[in-house]
Design a protein that fits this description.
alpha+beta; Phosphorylase Kinase, domain 1; Aminoglycoside 3'-phosphotransferase, Chain: A, domain 2; 2 domains; 11 strands; about 40% helix; globular
Length: about 280
């Protein structure tokens, strides 16, 4: 007999969801197919829901549960993020309300100034959560970036040498960290009749506020400074004024180039190498 989830979840995950929702109906498989995760549009008792599940090596589910349990309420209270309905860390599964709207990425909204203004205002709400000093942040993220360089990549040897020299100097003082999304960009923004909402907190962590601007700066804002201006107007200040900003861009570039090579995404890898060149020129 075919299970309700069409075997897209583990048996344990499917049973948990059935127990939570009683009669779940699978509407669509929304999974990206790149990482060890499953995203399903499910309908139950007249409600549209999102079921997110991870495999044994998935660390994003736990981080997303952390985000919803500790940091997303300012967004949720304004209807900008989905409420968490059910979660089980051991089984790596969660159920959220399904938010209305279509992804901004690939649509006119991706380059709409008002959407970027709204995105800035929404991010300010998230970043307004409890800030704290992190004495180990610099060492931790530097070691993580060096680990990318120790793994497989196609970064030029001379550039890699320069990167290592720059990075080993970044083991300094405590920095101020805030709740961050980790992937703040149009592929995680939904737009419904001109209103922006936010999804996918799987990279949630406490980091410097500027880190949430790295991907926008490397993509949508690169040739559209007016979008950055609109975003900053919504946010209320400019996190890029942080002295760490150029270094965060460099770390982001290394991770992008190495990760994209490892998953075989040539276009994304090319973007990572461009980000590296530009970050090195800035530094």
């Amino acid at each position: 007999m075919t299970r309700w989830d069409r075997d897209l979840l583990t048996a344990g995950q499917a049973e948990l969801v059935r127990g939570w929702l009683l009669e779940p109906e699978l509407v669509d498989d929304l999974s990206w197919g790149i990482v060890d995760s499953t995203v399903l549009h499910v309908r139950a008792r007249g409600s549209d829901l999102i079921v997110k599940a991870g495999g044994p090596g998935n660390h994003h589910l736990g981080r997303e549960i952390d985000a919803h349990e500790t940091a997303t309420s300012p967004l949720m209270d304004r209807g900008l993020a989905a409420p968490l309905r059910h979660a089980d860390r051991d089984e790596r599964i969660m159920v959220l309300d399904r938010l209305p709207g279509a992804l901004a990425a690939g649509s006119e909204s991706e380059f709409d100034a008002d959407i970027h203004r709204q995105a800035g205002a929404a991010l300010a709400l998230l970043h307004a959560g409890a800030a704290r000093p992190d004495p180990d942040y610099e060492q931790r993220v530097t070691e993580r970036t060096l680990a990318w360089l120790d793994g497989p990549h196609r970064i030029d040897g001379a550039i890699e040498s320069d990167l290592r020299t720059l990075l080993v100097e970044r083991r300094g003082d405590a920095v101020q960290v805030v709740p961050t999304h980790g992937d703040w960009q149009p592929r995680n923004w939904l737009v419904d009749e001109g209103t922006l909402r936010v999804i996918d907190f799987g990279r949630f962590a406490y980091r410097p506020a500027s880190t949430d601007l790295c991907r926008l700066a490397a993509q949508q804002w690169r040739e559209r400074p007016d979008l950055a201006d609109a975003f900053i107007a919504g946010y209320g200040s400019d996190p890029r004024e942080d002295p760490l900003w150029p270094v965060e861009q460099l770390r982001e570039a290394v991770g992008t180039a190495a990760y994209a090579f490892q998953i075989g995404d040539l276009d994304f890898e090319a973007q990572g190498h461009r980000m590296l060149r530009e970050a090195l020129r800035t530094l």
